[in-house]
Write a structure and sequence with these properties.
Elements (H helix, E strand, L loop, with lengths): L10 E3 L2 E3 L6 E3 L6 E5 L4 E5 L8 E6 L6 E8 L9 E6 L5 E4 L1
Antiparallel strand pairs: 1-2, 2-3, 4-5, 6-7, 7-8, 8-9
Length: about 100
């Protein structure tokens, strides 16, 4: 998410997005609210709620809370001729772990 005031990349901190450049804050809400600002030549639409684009692995079991279902992302952490590493995030408790 980008800051509507200065255009810098905002970072999530304690349930809200904070701009490191100017200090502007936007709280995260469960509902999706669109903020539209129009200028003479362009229209900007920002969505408050961040929806995870990571796929859901319904067979993954969290090692901490034993909940079945976790989002994952694949990253190439070693050389190109070795397999990717799968990083999981539990849907229930938010615990993160990896699988090689």
């Amino acid at each position: 998410m980008f800051c509507p005031k200065c255009g810098s990349l905002m970072t999530p901190v304690n349930g809200k997005y904070v701009c490191p450049s100017c200090g502007y804050e936007i709280s995260k809400n469960k509902e999706t609210i669109k903020i539209v600002s129009k200028s003479a030549d362009k229209e900007t639409i920002m969505i408050k709620e961040e929806v995870s684009a990571e796929p859901l692995d319904s067979d993954a079991v969290c090692p901490r809370c034993h909940h079945k279902g976790a989002r994952y992302v694949l990253k190439q952490t070693r050389s190109a001729d070795e397999p990717e590493t799968k990083f999981y995030t539990c849907e229930e408790c938010g615990y993160r772990w990896r699988e090689y």
